[in-house]
Design a protein that fits this description.
By secondary structure, the chain is mainly α. The protein has helices at residues 3-18, 26-29, 45-48, 58-102. The longest helix has 45 residues, at 58-102.
Length: 104
């Protein structure tokens, strides 16, 4: 796969994630696509690079990035706490089984 095709695939994945006002409209994609039937159109790099994608203003982009970073940090903290809890519960389970087997 060429670098251009890989880049286009990554950009489409990002566009699919956004699915909001920043997603390129269909009427912007279709004229740049090639294929026999509508649901089998292919968009190659030559057509992809000509698609206009609306972006929020730069200050709004910074707000979005800050929000995503804060939420990611929060989720990382929750993941670590959950992993710690799972480890503790496994230790307690082992201790409980050992106590039941030895009659303590």
């Amino acid at each position: 796969m060429s670098d251009h095709t890989t880049l286009a695939n990554h950009i489409w994945q990002i566009a699919d994630l956004l699915r909001g006002p920043y997603r390129p409209p269909q009427d912007e994609c279709a004229p740049n696509s090639h294929g026999i039937v509508w649901d089998r159109l292919r968009l190659y790099w030559e057509g992809f690079r000509d698609i206009r994608i609306p972006l929020p203003p730069l200050d709004e982009q910074h707000v979005i990035v800050a929000h995503v970073a804060a939420e990611t940090a929060r989720l990382d903290t929750l993941r670590l706490a959950t992993e710690s809890t799972i480890t503790l519960l496994k230790e307690r389970r082992s201790a409980l089984i050992a106590a039941a087997v030895t009659g303590r």
